[in-house]
Amino acid sequence: LVGSEMCIRDSIGVLVELSNKNIDKKFIYSVPNDLEKNIKLGIRVEVPFGYQRLEGFVISFEEEPEMETKSIISIIDEDIILNKELLKLGKIMQEETLSTLISCYQVMLPKALKASRKSSVSKKYDIFYELVKIPEKTTKKQDEIIELFKMRKIIPKKELQKISASSLKTLEANNTLREIKKEHYRVALLEEREEKKPLTVDQEKVVNEFRNSSDKVYLLHGVTGSGKTEVYMELIEDCIKENKTCIVLVPEISLTPQTISRFSKRFGSRIALLHSALSDGERYDEWRRINRGEVDIVIGARSALFAPLKNLGLIVIDEQHSESYKQDDSNPRYDAINMAIKRVELNKGAKVILGSATPTLDAYARALKNIYHLLNLPKRVNKKPLPEVTLVDMNQEFKRSEGHFSLLLLNKIKEKLSKEEQVILLLNRRGYSSFVTCKNCGYTVKCPHCDITLTYHKSSNNLRCHYCGYATNITNICPECHEKSLTTLGVGTEKIEEELHTLIPAAKILRMDFDTTSKKGSHAKMIEEFKEHKYDILLGTQIVAKGLDFENVTLVGVVNADTSLNIPNFRSSEQTFSLLSQVAGRSGRSSKTGEVIIQTYNPTHYAIECVKNHDYLDFFNKEMNIRRRLNYPPYYYVTYIRVSGKDDKICYKESLKIARILQKYLDKTIILGPSPCNVFKINNTFRYGITLKYKKQDNLKEILNRIIDVYKSNRLIVIDLNFNPIVFG
Residue 239, SS3? Predict the structure, then answer.
């Protein structure tokens, strides 16, 4: 960013809306005299660009240019959209991810405020009528209307529905009534307050240690049910007393009324929400409330990190281990935890606290090296022990199991339901079955656009691709051998729900997965209904593993613990340990004793044994030993380069060229590939990957930038970079 507010404002640098490496730079425009006084850094303007009219952000003030420049067309906003802090943060994100600068700014904003000709979200208003004066001559009908206003000078329009619109317009025209428009925010929090709970000895110790330290980044390692949220709220209260603001990030799936309710009961309505379940209009309203300084706390998912708060004091990142904090599916592929640390560095005295019962290995390793300040909550708040975990070896059980349920798990479910207690069941795979295959010739039904099997969904009786969304009706005739021999294999949540209805007919079952929670408000409704015991069993994917707190849940069952263990990724053991530990922590959170039953074909795997023993440190040490021997994080950094295109041969040829360039210039880097991605084809696009592993490679980003520059005009090949990826592919 160049220039300052003291510069002459008749020329400005504008970053236009198109995310293209060829034009990822500021363009200089002049400002007409009548707009000069309204030009500010960070506002949106409309500009001529070639034969188009585009929107863009003002990112600099410029000295008078030597040559004649085009003028901006108009100013779109009165308010600043990207304040100075966010302008700096976007630049940092660009340097971290090697994405276009405009994409870094766009990801910070709700749809209504992005630089885009397609954004059209309006403010919502409530209409009122106010009595201004009583005219000398009136009709009988007008007298009746005026009488209403003598009692109440201002009346909402919705209360005047029985009065004809023409009568109101006539009274407005003769200045008897005046229409008043008041902006109406679409999100409203309940003003239900409650006194804060006294801190436990462990919580008090953690809070005081945080208060007395000047460190920037803290890792709060607390077992499930240890009261991490109470610690967050105490530290947030400290910030608010100092007139500072706070951001609370939670994984999307755990952003439930339970979380929001706890904060609103403590802090009232000066809370804003930012997450994907909100409509475009709701996000627009919440963003403007924040920008106007009407809130102290912003609660939301990953993108809430960029809320335009002033005087930021604290960023809380709950469930720090969650993969949802890394944007892996589109540019900019940023890590919210990394960017949170960068943001507090821009705010004097601000801090970040990362909380989890199962911290990532990277975070815990940093804490042991004092890069992060380690805080511990080793016990549950109610002094209850963690639930007892029983492993069921399905290699021995499958012959006498009922469907996909061992006799032990099935009998335990029946026992809990007979006591009017509740059960949570986890199966981290949605749909009815994993794939459809032919018993005669072995043919497997795949997506015609992607190199992936189709999943059968019985409720809609179709096959769906979970990558591109392709769907087709199911048939029992094999398209290869034309025999009536297609059958479904594998199991998903839909199939398990069907089995439960057969095995325990009286049980009231609530299925929670992507298919059942896609409708707005459905997730929150389900949580509330299960809390009110309208259902006995909550069955779901990883949605049910985090952020949920039900007093009456005394049993957690894992139908198949090996689903995540079989993923071809060096983090699969860590992901398995984390998921199973988190879901186990949903059991026995109040006065009733909890139990956990985990069904697995790998009962001796160290990740599963460590879950049984609630032993994070043992898992950490064993997994770190493997990572060290295989040169993986946190011992090495990893970057993944994906080369994709419509022509397989061209794609592979160019990926080989790129690998040779990397081998030539990156002398301290281990280079693996190119090799086909885990999912080789998506949407008729072929994909090859190159993995880089390194401890220190000073010229890495320089070389990667050169490769991007070489291919930025190539329409046959797309290069995607992912630093510290969650998914390789």
Answer: helix
